[in-house]
Design brief:
Length: 374
């Protein structure tokens, strides 16, 4: 697959920004050069997107956005506040929970494990886990990652802090009909457990070694391992939970538990589609579609494909949490455009969808109307 990004392009752009003269910076007052907050607003199109996002901020949006066009990061900025008291502004360095966008990352980790000979997505559970119950024996990893395994969508393992406890609670829950699409995190929890058991390394370390370090994601980690109440580093939750109501569920590591910032998110997706994490065959398997729903949505491993109104392909992954954090990666492959968004504002403007969708939809419209992208 052709690489859409080059790290050197970013470096050259940042260097050019730092060398702007005072006269030039005055002439382009809305163009913010590289600084300690990693802000980028490059060109008229980026300025228009920035203006749109500032309007959205007035309507309740808080989060970070990165827009990449033809391999160039034209916008990378933060909007709103990390906290409800509005004491700390969001910057590109602010961390957010990925929520279910984490599942796409788990899909990547699974295929890295397959490339490394740790597991195969065609393997039945009985081949990998000797303790698999008879009912679950023939379920494959591919079925678990495409939500067609029959696993329940309930949180039976809520509060299970140990891997084996998590597995056994999944096995105790009766399966639904195999082959039917039923969105669930349990298949991702179980896949992560199998990677950990087979690779003989903690799942978090496997992800850090094979994804975070390779993609140079220096500000990413897992839920419950960070000082998440530090509002200078992390966007706060809309809803606070007493510590005893949110135990460190083992399964969260693979289904919703990664926290990152927009810079690392861009590094991750750049590394992914440029072949630094997966080969072409694995990328094709990751994105799918392994099946297509009646709505036209194609199902991959934590990734989905749809056709745009322009009859082009969009590959995407998104997620949201009840405490407000939500995120999306949207790749318009043929048009060579990527929109990345991390937020902590839940739903805004009375919409039925979380801000990652409503706001990125507006960005998409602005990008593709009137031939803005050449």
């Amino acid at each position: 697959m052709k690489a859409c990004f080059l790290t050197s392009m970013m470096a050259l752009f940042l260097i050019s920004c730092s060398q702007k003269t005072k006269d030039n910076s005055t002439e382009n007052s809305s163009m913010m050069s590289q600084d300690e907050n990693q802000i980028i607003i490059d060109g008229n199109l980026a300025k228009n997107i920035d203006s749109l996002l500032r309007e959205e901020m007035n309507l309740g949006f808080s989060g970070t956005v990165s827009v990449i066009v033809n391999g160039k990061n034209i916008l990378q900025n933060g909007y709103g506040w990390t906290d409800s008291l509005k004491t700390t502004a969001i910057t590109p360095l602010t961390g957010f929970y990925l929520a279910s966008t984490t599942k796409g990352l788990t899909g990547v980790a699974t295929l890295i494990a397959q490339q490394n000979g740790v597991i195969k997505t065609t393997d039945p559970l009985s081949k990998i886990d000797s303790e698999t119950s008879e009912e679950f024996a023939n379920i494959t990893i591919r079925q678990m990652l495409t939500h067609t395994s029959g696993l329940s969508d309930e949180y039976e393992t809520f509060g299970a802090t140990q891997r084996d406890e998590n597995i056994q609670l999944i096995y105790k829950t009766p399966l639904g009909k195999e082959g039917d699409f039923n969105y669930t995190g349990a298949g991702y929890w179980l896949t992560a457990a199998l990677i950990e058991k087979t690779a003989e390394i903690p799942y978090e370390e496997y992800v850090k070694d094979n994804i975070f370090r390779t993609a140079k994601m220096t500000n990413s980690d897992f839920w419950f391992e960070l000082d998440e109440d530090n509002k200078k580093k992390y966007a706060q939750k809309l809803k606070k939970f007493p510590p005893n109501e949110v135990p460190p569920n083992w399964g969260f590591r693979a289904s919703s538990g990664v926290i990152t910032n927009i810079i690392d998110l861009q590094r991750y997706f750049t590394a992914l589609i440029s072949g630094k994490l997966l080969n072409d065959e694995s990328l094709e398997e990751l994105f799918g579609a392994h099946l297509t729903l009646g709505s036209g949505i194609g199902i991959g491993y934590g990734w989905f494909t749809t056709k745009t109104s322009r009859k082009t392909t969009e590959i995407w992954s998104r997620g949201g949490e009840g405490f407000g954090h939500n995120s999306a990666i949207r790749w318009f492959r043929e048009e060579n455009v990527i929109i990345l968004i991390l937020t902590n504002c839940g739903q805004i403007e009375g919409e039925d969808y979380e801000a990652n969708k409503t706001v990125s939809d507006k960005i998409e419209k602005l990008l593709f109307e009137k031939d803005n992208i050449k």
